[in-house]
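Contributing new complexes? Match this layout with WT7.
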Amino acid sequence: MTNQQEEIHGLQENRIFEPPAQFKAQAAVSGMDAYNKLCAEAASDYEGFWSRLARENLDWHKPFTSTLNESEAPFYKWFDDGELNVSYNCLDRNIKNGLGDKTAIIFEADDGTTTRATYQQLYEKVCKFANGLKSRGIKKGDRVVIYMPMSIEGVAAMQACARIGATHSVVFGGFSAKSLQERIIDAGAVAVITADEQVRGGKQLPLKSIVDEALALGGCTTMKDVIVYKRTGGKISFTEGRDTWLHDLVEAQPAECEPEWVNAEHPLFILYTSGSTGTPKGVQHASGGFLLWAALTMKWTFDIKPSDVFWCTADIGWVTGHTYIAYGPLAVGATEIVFEGVPTFPNAGRFWDTIDKHNVSIFYTAPTAIRSLIKASDVDPKVHPKNYKLSSLRLLGSVGEPINPEAWMWYYRNVGNEKCPIVDTFWQTETGGHMITPLPGATPMVPGSCTLPLPGIMTAIVDEAGHDVPNGQGGILVVKRPWPSMIRTIWGNPERFKTSYFPEELGGRMYLAGDGAIRNKDTGYFTITGRIDDVLNVSGHRMGTMEIESALVANPLVAEAAVVGKPDDTTGESICAFVVLKQARPTGDEAKKLALELRNWVAKEIGPIAKPKEIRFGDNLPKTRSGKIMRRLLRVLAKGETITQDISTLENPAILEQLKEAS
Ligand code: WT7
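Output block (do not edit by hand):
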């Protein structure tokens, strides 16, 4: 690694921040001895450790006797003769424990309007919703796509599916009609739950009409019902027999619904995420193991207490919104914020203002958001966190991408007032919950490092043959033992599951995360150095370069395209596309016009998050004599650096000059 890269990844970082004594004194896991004790318990009796936790943290309708079943490895099963219901564990259980009148959700709308739901109210909403779904013939095992804005109804839709044993697949509201259609088809969904429109940053964005468009693209042969939550009352078209208003569907339904008891391995949800090749993968999660880890990491990583107000700023369309909005906080009876808006509306002080307004005590957001708010407060000092109280905060979290030490320090000083620990949580859609993170009352923190794995999580760094590498030497991040909230399979593609995550080259039993990592020589702390495959992380969102390339070449003007990531101060990485058109290479205004056209094309094909920030046109792409595109050279060009690497295998060196600058 170069010095510059080491700086970016914080590998030269030597500042250590001990957990504040006051925090440590009250923490669920207090001090490193407590952490080490849990790790030792897992090491000495792995199944005993997990079965104890599963008994203590979840209510089982039928207790399990088998903890880990490895008979069909790597298709591992957890607690697989046990039965439970996820929604029962999130709602009924809390009401039985006397939390019926406690606020479950504080909904902060885009315009600042606040709506609350107690556990009892949420329970009734979910039961009516579940009965409404059943009245349409939706049943256990059916797949339901949820294409909803951030709302109490969005969470209720997920819980209602869980209640009746339907498997949900939430599609982020920013995905295009085509992406939505592909997911509906792949999942074989029988229904879509959506809203008329969503509101973000003062703007109305259509959802229902995108669903109409997706279904009009054809191929959604299993689809029968579209259920529409009225958010804005904006004009939409209705297809008789297919479309139903949510309020009509639930109106006459009873406010109780017996939960469908399911096997612990019953698929709770499918969530699509990008891989290095091909179409997005439907990551399938199970009910019992997923919920166990959602609840337990709320306690361990977030040290959740009955008096906390928890706020995770993610969208329910991503895994963070599944584990730490729709399930984890409710599973532990917490009060949480569900936020509809964006960090910069009505101004870039919105997060800080909302923290003060609702006395948020635990705040969990992404480095991209922090970096953009640092910039915003440089421009407009009025929105700097020092102008807000922020005295309710006791813990901060970071998720989705590496947090650079500068952003970490700013967050620590200005938002946490040097009193709040920061948990830099490394995990993935596939892992279901946190994997490597400090425990806020135990682990000494180092800016830019996600520190140590949670107890029971057997992470390691290996070389390409699967052998452990010594600390201080970078390698491939793996997990050596299965864990309860791990991905179970790729929906409809078990072969791809095996080759993507349990490759034979590593022996077929180690989970391959797809990230590079390095452990500190002295502390053993992990630092994630970034993806080792062709997956980009833009603002904490995963994008496959192949997906974007396929979208580009689907445009009739495009002959060939190659997409690479480029480091970006705010978004972590940005998308840079090298494009060869069928017509002559455009220059000047013509190039600008065509670049804009192609960016919008990608937004339409995949969604605005996949729009290349930069497009460069060439007569060709740098290729080897056998015709392979030399992406490593494109990465260097994207960064604006001079190529110092060996280019002897490059067939057309002259092309490099042409691709040096953005059009
Ligand atoms: C990829 C997973 C984690 C849920 C949201 C994203 C990167 C995630 C961190 C972190 C460094 C991180 C990795 C990982 N990543 N958290 N704390 N430090 N990198 O889930 O979309 O499945 O993306 O995000 O590269 O593989 P995802």
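Reviewers usually confirm one structural detail per submission. For this one: The pocket of WT7 is lined by residues 273, 318-320, 399-402, 424-429, 450, 513-515, 528, 531, 537, 540, 542 (CB under 6 Å).
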